[in-house]
Design brief:
Elements (H helix, E strand, L loop, with lengths): L2 H11 L3 H26 L4 H9 L3 H39 L4 H45 L1
Helix pairs in contact: 1-2, 3-4, 4-5
């Protein structure tokens, strides 16, 4: 029996006014609890807080860990990206100026150094996206707390 039918039946069959009000209040309270649990289930996961709980750390330690990983990923991106870029310039130079197969070495090194640079770029992108989602979640929770 759904709530509309239950309310209709209470209104028709219960003659005592006080009992009717109590039953209707119970139906409303049941619906409120049901709505609260559904809303909690739809909440996005707070990844930084989850990491803090799983590791037994505070939220501040989790944020510090995020910054450390972000800085290392950025350093790797800059180091490997610039090295790959310079080897690419060397590849272009040897390709058009020298006749021997030295350009193959520069091509290999460009590809070899581009792989960790791309992985670091994906890492930086993932960390930034995760932080944006975390900040959206925090703002959403603050706005819900104010209303």
């Amino acid at each position: 029996m759904d709530d509309k039918e239950l309310i209709k039946r209470i209104m028709e069959e219960v003659k005592d006014e006080k009992l009717r009000e109590e039953l209707l209040a119970l139906v409303v309270e049941k619906n409120k609890k049901k709505g609260d649990t559904e809303q909690e289930e739809e909440k996005p996961i707070d990844y930084v807080a989850k990491q803090a709980v799983l590791l037994g750390a505070t939220e501040g330690a989790a944020k510090a860990g995020w910054w450390i990983v972000f800085l290392f990923a950025s350093i790797f991106l800059i180091a490997f990206g610039s090295a790959a870029f310079f080897y690419f310039l060397g590849f272009l130079y040897t390709l058009f100026t020298k006749s021997d197969e030295e350009w193959l070495y520069y091509l290999f090194m460009t590809i070899f150094l581009s792989i960790p640079a791309l992985l670091a770029a994906f890492g930086v992108f993932a960390l930034r996206s995760g932080k944006r989602e975390y900040e959206k979640l925090k703002r959403k929770e603050e706005n819900q707390g104010q209303s």
